[in-house]
Design goal:
two-stranded antiparallel ribbon, single chain, Aminopeptidase, 394 residues, 47% helix, alpha/beta, 12 helices
Length: 394
């Protein structure tokens, strides 16, 4: 596309302005609200309709399972030393259950234990020239993440610290059950000592996340501003039967709560018109380009046909890409919430997506625009616009 560079430069300029004006944008803060209003104002310059959609979130709840896990482990080990293995087992199982539901499936199990805040999704609509036959949502998220201390201090130990801590809580539950049936004093003493030493690893999880936020450039403001500029392009280059919806979600870093609120609010529209979501998250490097075929720790299926279509368009434009599932225990993207309500969805990612290998600036204070390659934003613009144009001709 001939004006790709122009679209990209506008996206970078807007993202930098929002970062300069607001800094880190943790969901539920005034900075994030101001960023959302800036995006709404920019959409209002070209969109046929814009909306600032408010919803409720519970600040800090999504990662709350971490401190519950640490506290439960400490309590469980203490209970074993007081020869109360069944109570220790119950505590361990409860913490594992919270982990599974809150993090594996992104369900709001403990949300209401945390402060209630307002979040703001920004939505812009570009109508086609003729009757609407389908709609395509192009999206990113404008909230930024908490700094993950484990990605700053000894990042190579990240997987050991996180997965290892979960394994130790599972071990606590197994040994608690065993100690109820096995009365051998030596076995009991060894088990208690091993689990006590395990707190040296599990206890570190208490300091997993900082209270500070990242600049959130690659994760994920550039995705929102790129989506906005693609919307501007389609306002100037009208489609015939395809409605374009530009969405910038809030609270992605709080367990996809903004996308969930959006999906719930617009479900009837998705049922009325065939709807496709082209989401972007963590677009840092072109060499790492891929499209998701599953989401939310692998618990939600994405549209493989869509992902493969985008891979073909990428190849046509000489971009190397692949379609693949999300890795287990690595989280999720906003596309997962829309897929849950039947939207044909995928997410474009430009970063190795595993706990052993991610962008070195991911969830750190170094997540600035100079670490986002222009080439991957060019690829995003090219692939998404070409897909939309092809579908509008059908």
């Amino acid at each position: 596309m001939k004006d790709t560079a122009q679209i990209r430069e506008k996206a970078f300029a807007l993202a930098q302005r929002i970062i300069d004006e607001n800094g880190p944008r943790l969901a539920g803060t005034e900075a994030t609200k101001k960023a959302a209003k800036t995006l709404e104002q920019e959409m209002g310059k070209f969109a046929d309709k814009t909306e600032l959609e408010s919803f409720h979130l519970y600040q800090g709840a999504f990662l709350g399972w971490i401190k519950i896990l640490v506290a439960s482990y400490a309590l469980g080990v203490t209970l074993l030393w007081f020869d109360l293995p069944l109570i220790a087992l119950a505590v361990a199982i409860l913490s594992i259950l919270i982990l599974v539901l809150q993090f594996f499936f992104y369900l709001p199990i403990i949300d209401k234990l945390y402060p209630k805040k307002d979040g703001y999704n920004v939505v812009g609509y570009i109508e086609p020239t003729d009757e609407v036959k389908s709609q395509v949502i192009i999206s990113g998220h404008h909230d930024s993440a908490q700094v993950f201390n484990f990605f700053i201090h000894q990042p190579k130990l990240y997987n050991l610290r996180t997965t290892g801590s979960i394994v130790l809580v599972i071990l606590l539950s197994i040994l608690s059950l065993a100690l109820y049936f096995i009365t051998n004093d030596i076995f009991g003493l060894v088990a208690k000592i091993v689990l006590s030493l395990g707190f040296l690893l599990t206890g570190q999880m208490w300091f997993f996340a900082s209270k500070q936020g990242t600049p959130g450039a690659g994760d994920n403001l550039i995705a929102s501003t790129t989506a906005l500029e693609i919307g501007r392009h389609f306002k100037e280059n009208k489609l015939k039967h395809t409605r374009i919806i530009i969405a910038s979600f809030d609270a992605e870093e709080e367990g996809l709560r903004g996308a969930r609120a959006f999906a719930k609010l617009h479900k009837q529209s998705f049922e009325k018109f065939p709807t496709t979501l082209l989401n972007t998250d963590c677009a840092y490097n072109l060499k790492d380009l891929f499209f998701l075929t599953s989401d939310v720790n692998g618990t939600v299926k994405m549209d493989e046909e869509l992902a493969n279509e985008l891979v073909k368009i990428a190849a046509k434009n000489k971009y190397s890409a692949e379609a693949k599932p999300i890795s287990f225990l690595t989280g999720g993207t906003d596309a997962g919430e829309l897929a849950r309500v039947g939207v044909k969805a995928t997410t474009l990612i430009g970063m190795p997506w595993s706990n052993n290998s991610r962008s070195s600036v991911y969830h750190t204070p170094n997540d600035t625009l100079d670490h986002v390659e222009k080439e991957i934003i060019d690829a995003t613009i090219t692939i998404f616009t070409e897909y939309v144009e092809q579908k509008d001709q059908i």
